[in-house]
Amino acid sequence: MSFWWFLVLAGASVLLALAVYRLRRARTAGGPPAPAPEVDVEREVRDLIDTTPELQALYQKIQCSPALERQLEQLLSELKELIRVEIPDFPAFREALRQIRARADDGVAPASQSRYLGSNLALLDAVLAAEDDRTGILEILNRNPVEDLLPFVEQIPLHRNGKIVWSTPMELAIMRKRPHDPRRFALVLEEIEKLVRSSKLSRKEQSRSEVLDTVSRARRELQRENAYILTSLKLLDVKLDEWLRHATQPASRRKRVELDLLLRELIRTRHALDEADRSALKETTQSQARQYLDGTWLHTRWLTTYVLTNLLGSELYGFSNRQRKASASPGNVLELVCEEVSSGNYDSEETTRRLRQMEERGVYVHSLSYALLRLHRPGDPASS
User: Fold this and answer.
1) What is the 3-state secondary structure (H, E, C) of the chain?
2) Does residue 93 contact residue 174 with C-beta atoms inside 8 Å?
3) Which of 19, 90, 204, 372 is buried most, with the most CB atoms less than 10 Å from its CB?
4) CA-CA distance, 50 to 53, in Å (whole number)?
5) What is the pLDDT of residues 361-379, one digit of tens each?
6) Mean pLDDT, the chain cut into blocks of 10 residues (384 residues total)
7) Which pLDDT value is given to residue 359?
8) Contact, 237 vs 244, CB < 8 A?
9) CA proximity to 289, closest of 366, 365, 364, 368
10) How far apart are CA 77 and CA 300, in angstroms?
């Protein structure tokens, strides 16, 4: 009997090994390709601006400052990270929870209200389930104290004109949300105030005053033990965004949107050129080049090079690998031109000459390429 079991086990091992081999072969040979990593376009836009003086100057020209925006964003994030939940009187807090549970059991807080409370109902359920576990409740409430609000404690239902309106309290005694380091909180508020006061951005004075007033309000609430400081903190978030994003001149606001959008689309196209069928992107790169050429205020040497690299890259895909390997082939010439342009160290007149020589051999690139090369010459707008 043991011999037959040996044969069965041996046969199973062979089948398992064969299945593993086929699976590995399918993955390496004919299996579906691994999904491409998701591109963090917003992060790449920030990195480009941070490392490209020409882009920084272009934003300043339209009365915008991504660096200041990022600085204020980081300071505001720090304010939020300082917030911690305290329960000074746990018996009173526990009694409030019991009343909330009783109201829910009596149908006073129907499930239909969930559309007003959203994910905060799950927070309420988790806190109610913790019952008398003070440490557990604090752990739950401190997971995301700024965004997660406890219904019927931090969110109070008010009936107005036959509708339920959820409001936050001005003061809260049974549960507090305050900075665990008040001194640092005050210093960060001071930094925000200094940046706003010293900024040279062209903005409406009323918008600037509203930011400063909200900072002062948060500073006052920091001194009051039971003040619900989250309301001021979230209002500061809104007022800072309004002040930063809304330039005085409508033209500046429009140009900001246009520039942000162009950078995002150029980055997406650059990644697609590396991962997809380039020939399918010709229309996209041509459209972006036309948009860039028409927006004369956008013209800088760096952006010209970026747009031109994408445009030539989409042209390159039409040549086979064999054609590109031949040293004198048009495909190889175009590949060398693409590499030079991509590096940013190229002579526009010499690049134009090489592309014209390709045309003499019956190989053409889009005419927008020549328009972009003309922009890159010293003395032209894009070179300033």
Assistant:
1) CHHHHHHHHHHHHHHHHHHHHHHHHHHHHHCCCCCCCCCCHHHHHHHHHHHCHHHHHHHHHCCCCHHHHHHHHHHHHHHHHCEEEECCCHHHHHHHHHHHHHHHHCCCCCHHHHHHHCCHHHHHHHHHHHCCCHHHHHHHHCCCCCCCCCECCCEEEEEECCEEEEECCCECCCCEEEECCHHHHHHHHHHHHHHHHHCCCCCCHHHHHHHHHHHHHHHHHHCCCCECCHHHHHHHHHHHHHHHHCCCCHHHHHHHHHHHHHHHHHHHHHHHHHHCCHHHHHHHHHHHHHHHHHCHHHCCHHHHHHHHHHHHHHHHCCCCHHHHHCCCCHHHHHHHHHHHHHHCCCCHHHHHHHHHHHHHCCCCCCCHHHHHHHHCCCCCHHHC
2) yes
3) 372
4) 8
5) 877 889 999 999 998 876 5
6) 38 39 40 57 93 95 93 97 95 88 59 56 88 93 93 79 76 91 98 96 92 97 93 95 86 93 95 74 93 95 95 74 50 83 91 89 88 79 49
7) 84
8) no
9) 368
10) 33
Distance CA 165, CA 146 (A): 20
Residue with tokens 């398992």: 16
Instruction: Please tell me the predicted confidence (pLDDT) of residue 104.
Output: 62
In this predicted structure, what is the pLDDT of residue 215?
98
Instruction: Give the per-residue pLDDT at 110.
Output: 45
How are beta strands 163-167 and 156-160 bridged, if at all?
A: antiparallel
pLDDT at residue 330 in the model: 61
What is the token pair recorded at 367?
Answer: 């005419």
What confidence score (pLDDT) does residue 336 get?
87
CA angle (76 as vertex; 203, 114 as ends), nearest 5: 105
- Of 44, 38, 37, 55, the C-alpha closest to 264 is 44
* Distance (Å, whole) CA 192 – CA 195: 5
Strand partners, 156: 167
CA gap 86, 209 in Å, rounded: 32
User: Which structure tokens are listed for 246?
Assistant: 């809304």
* Alpha-carbon gap, residue 217 to 211, rounded angstroms: 10
- C-alpha closest to that of 167 among 180, 148, 185, 152: 152
The Cα–Cα gap between 294 and 288 comes to 10
Residue 246 half-sphere exposure, CB side, CA atoms within 13 Å?
11
